[in-house]
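ok new one. same drill as before - structure tokens go in, u give me an amino acid for every spot. 126 of them this time. try not to just spam alanines like last time pls lmao
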């Protein structure tokens, strides 16, 4: 029996629920085979969680923002911000993150091409 791997959200009609499960198992098996070869590292989608640390209702929470800025370099006069990401989260007084409140992400096309060295860690040099 052959199975077809359908991209998530493709809108394709599936015959029965088993096909989706087969596709998921096939993808997991392919990732395992690739990693086992030693020539590949397979990245998996991060599945966000609503609650990270269960916290009693009476515990006082604080709010923090994680900021991630990607630039084309370190010179404020000539380099540009190419990506900005923020995650607003609630945390306990002892530092445990309780849950994510909101997130923001934005990309900016740089005026000049990104250097080869920077492109190793940048999502934008295409």
């Amino acid at each position: 029996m052959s199975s077809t791997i359908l991209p998530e959200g493709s809108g394709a009609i599936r015959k029965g629920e088993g096909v989706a499960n087969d596709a998921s198992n096939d993808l997991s098996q392919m990732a395992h085979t690739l990693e086992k070869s030693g020539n590949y590292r397979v990245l998996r989608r991060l599945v966000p969680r609503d609650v990270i640390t269960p916290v009693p209702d009476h515990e006082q929470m604080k709010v923090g923002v994680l900021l991630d800025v990607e630039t084309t370099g370190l010179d404020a006069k000539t380099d540009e911000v190419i990506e900005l990401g923020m995650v607003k989260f609630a945390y306990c007084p002892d530092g445990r993150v309780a849950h994510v409140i909101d997130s923001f992400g934005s990309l900016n096309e740089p005026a000049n091409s990104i250097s080869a060295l920077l492109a190793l860690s940048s999502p934008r040099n295409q």
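Helices lie at 17-36, 116-119. and btw The chain has two helices and three strands.
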